Amino acid sequence: MATLLRSKLSNVATSVSNKSQAKMSGMFARMGFQAATDEEAVGFAHCDDLDFEHRQGLQMDILKTEGEPCRDEGAEPPVEGDIHYQRGGGAPLPPSGSKDQALGAGGEFGGHDKPKITAWEAGWNVTNAIQGMFVLGLPYAILHGGYLGLFLIIFAAVVCCYTGKILIACLYEENEDGEVVRVRDSYVAIANACCAPRFPTLGGRVVNVAQIIELVMTCILYVVVSGNLMYNSFPGLPVSQKSWSIIATAVLLPCAFLKNLKAVSKFSLLCTLAHFVINILVIAYCLSRARDWAWEKVKFYIDVKKFPISIGIIVFSYTSQIFLPSLEGNMQQPSEFHCMMNWTHIAACVLKGLFALVAYLTWADETKEVITDNLPGSIRAVVNIFLVAKALLSYPLPFFAAVEVLEKSLFQEGSRAFFPACYGGDGRLKSWGLTLRCALVVFTLLMAIYVPHFALLMGLTGSLTGAGLCFLLPSLFHLRLLWRKLLWHQVFFDVAIFVIGGICSVSGFVHSLEGLIEAYRTNAED
């Protein structure tokens, strides 16, 4: 009996040892190390079979427990950015309740019961992102760039349209049957795939940090522009720009209580239409002064010190790459995505170029950071009040998105979370979670008070995160994931965009930072 028991234990130990060796060899093979012998190659294949069977078993378990109302206590959530080993090009489904499912991502990522949007509706969303309030700073970019600034508006539109398309291309891969299938669902998933297998979550964290910075800076810009517009609309009142910013923030404080954007989204269309009306009013006033246009003031040379700031301003006005994967996943006909990107960016390029040129020709060297500050007093007050209302109603959108990213990254339930969850078991926001949201609102106020320079902040943000998310990362991801399938001209375009984007990003960031330091010193002396 003892001999039989020892024999069984020996067989089990040998089997476990063989499986472990095969598992380790397979892991090193997937990391890039080649098999040295036929025995190792057999071990790799055996490991792949074991790995596939194990994951198939896990998948069946997941399907069996999918309808259960709760999970076992102590169960860990899936690791963020976990790259599942798949056969046949199948894509892993996002966890239940994920943001992508909430957004109704299409295809293999859930959302089959969500209503899809047409290409026109998708184009309207893209237009809202790239035709927002920040076009008010484009005439200031022409002031320092002249005709080169106009060329840059066209160039940025072309590049952002191209990088948006290649970013969506990174969502797809060919399966064993040669069919192109959607295997990723977000910008973060693309970044994680590029850094796998050694650093499977690094790329997602970098994208999340860049996204948070851009969203928070957008909130700060809304507070800055609100204070600036109100101050210049009522210069006779004994209220400073900082005081107007504080008043605007007091109005925005209820944003900390937001659980969803249903109450805010209904104003989105109205705000966008109001903004187009304002742009038309500004252009109409400029056309009324067409006889006095200063064509001779449009320069063929640039201000070397201030033009890089203009690059950041122009790039920031085109940023939309963050939400493009979700938008494409929600389209009824994803094949129409390229056409939609073409006409939206062509329209944006034409409208932005005309608006910037006409406004600059009207005021020439007197062009201010926010172009509506150049309007006569009677018109300026009306236009600026509408713009302030639009800014205040637009603030909750990036604020809520920033809060969601922070909560998802740092405050989710589970052992991998850095901090406890912000919500209780009943779904109510905890007091300390509400305090953190209020602190974020106050932080945007403090930044707006101490750095009240709309164009410089816009240039800094565009150079830091705008260029990275729109130029650098999409081209890098495209090269990393689709290198073997790219033609030579595609490789050339990606490398050229990465190099030019890197130079513009560094130079714009440095000069914007220098401009902010100089402006801060000037304010301190005054």
TrEMBL record:
Q: List keywords of the entry alphabetically.
A: Cell projection, Cytoplasmic vesicle, Membrane, Neurotransmitter transport, Synapse, Transmembrane, Transmembrane helix, Transport
Task: Name any one GO molecular function.
Answer: glycine:proton antiporter activity
Query: Which catalysed reactions does the entry list for this protein?
Result: 4-aminobutanoate(out) + n H(+)(in) = 4-aminobutanoate(in) + n H(+)(out); glycine(out) + n H(+)(in) = glycine(in) + n H(+)(out); beta-alanine(out) + n H(+)(in) = beta-alanine(in) + n H(+)(out)
Q: What's one GO BP annotation on this UniProt entry?
A: gamma-aminobutyric acid import
Q: Where in the cell is it found?
A: Cytoplasmic vesicle membrane; Presynapse
- Show the segment(s) annotated as Disordered: 80-105
Q: Does the keyword Transport apply?
A: yes
Any single Pfam family the record assigns to this protein: Aa_trans
Annotated Amino acid transporter transmembrane domain residues: 116-512
Membrane-spanning residues where?
148-172, 212-231, 267-287, 307-327, 339-361, 381-406, 434-451, 457-479, 491-510
Recorded hits in InterPro entries, A to Z, give:
AA_transpt_TM
Indicate the principal place this protein occupies in or around the cell. membrane
GO CC terms = cell surface; cell tip; cone cell pedicle; cytoplasmic vesicle membrane; dendrite terminus; inhibitory synapse; presynaptic active zone; vacuolar membrane
Domain of life assignment: Eukaryota
Membrane topology term reads: Multi-pass membrane protein
- Assigned protein family: Belongs to the amino acid/polyamine transporter 2 family.
In UniProt terms, what function does this protein have?
Answer: Antiporter that exchanges vesicular protons for cytosolic 4-aminobutanoate or to a lesser extend glycine, thus allowing their secretion from nerve terminals. The transport is equally dependent on the chemical and electrical components of the proton gradient. May also transport beta-alanine. Acidification of GABAergic synaptic vesicles is a prerequisite for 4-aminobutanoate uptake.
- According to UniProt, the name of this protein is Vesicular inhibitory amino acid transporter
Origin organism is Camelus dromedarius
